[in-house]
Amino acid sequence: MHLTQLLGQTKAVNLLRRALTGGRLGHAYLFTGPDGVGKATAARAMAASLLCREDAESAPCGRCPGCLKFVSGNHPDFLSVRPDGAVIKIDQVRELKKALVFPPLEAPLRVTLLEEVHTMRREAANSLLKILEEPPPDNLLLLTADEAEPLLPTILSRCQVIPFSPLPLAATIEILQRMHPGLDEENARTLAALAGGSPGRTNGINHAELLHLHRDILEGLLAKGAGEADQVETALRLAARVSKSDGLETLLDLLRLFCKDVMATCCRYPGADASQQPAQILARARERWNLPELSDNIQAIDAALQALARNCNRQLVCEVLFLRLLAGAAQQQAT
């Protein structure tokens, strides 16, 4: 990927392009921002440009030996360090220090990407600091970190910091459709609401199953003309299905976002027109719940998420939740 293809990060891209074309590269760059907004993607795009054998303006060309080796994951002058389990360990940093002693094998510059450096414990961070204080010649370090996690101030001070921000809605939708071919715009908008400007957060989610279940939940909650017995049957049926999903917490997050969207449209809150939900579904939800009931729904969902965090029985948590949501809907329908 070329840096210019990175969506929604104009400031970061401009800073990096100036560094690449201005002939004044620093020895270390720290990409900071929320998880899933393109920090590692940008770092790899920068590495690809530096390892390309064409001039800086046209790099990466995608055709030269340097580009071909980088894309295949076999370039000898590109090193990557990621957390081993939950953290980057001291042994990983020690091995990196040994590798950096030797000059690059093919390219004028060796590029090392260290992802999620905020996971390092103090011992590993201090070892990395020694590399940053006395960088070996012909080496460039690219670090990524979550802005919400603390880093040693000495590491921050020895890197040029490139800030990344949450992506705008349109960019999030476009990236999600690239990530998940065949995803239509309506479902992409639903996932975009969940991603909160960080499309990388949806990695590992079975989005097809998730969105199908999400639609079934809404249809069950918004069905008209159901009596009390039918409401209980619907609650138990939904609970049995949803509790078996690997993405249960994600489904509840989506349901919470849906209730907030409905509240925003009820209040005609600025920006409500940009809701991720179809207008017809929102209209049905406004008929079903009033504002106090929507607020109660959100509290019920929050209580369910807290119960799941305490490892309570998943099906029981879901049964209680859906019975509460449908009880509020039934009361509104009766009035």
Write the layout of secondary structure elements.
Elements: H1 10-21, E1 28-33, H2 39-51, H3 65-72, E2 78-81, H4 90-100, E3 110-114, H5 122-133, E4 139-146, H6 153-157, E5 160-163, H7 169-179, H8 185-195, H9 207-222, H10 228-242, H11 248-266, H12 279-288, H13 291-309, H14 314-334
Parallel strand pairs: 1-4, 1-5, 2-3, 3-4
Structure description:
The longest helix is centred in the last third of the chain and has 21 residues, at 314-334. The chain contains 14 helices and 5 strands. The chain is 55% helix and 8% strand. Helix 7 crosses helix 8 and helix 13 packs antiparallel against helix 14 (314-334). It has 335 residues and is an alpha/beta fold.
Précis, in short:
The longest helix has 21 residues, at 314-334. Helix 8 packs across helix 11 (248-266), helix 9 (207-222) runs antiparallel to helix 10 (228-242) and helix 11 packs across helix 12 (279-288).
Model regions low in confidence, pLDDT < 50 over at least 5 residues: 330-335
Query: Care to count the β-strands?
Result: 5
Strand-residue proportion: 5-15%
Largest sheet, described in full? Answer: 5 strands, parallel
Q: What structural class do the secondary elements suggest?
A: alpha/beta
Numbering strands along the chain, what is their spatial order in the largest sheet? Answer: 2-3-4-1-5
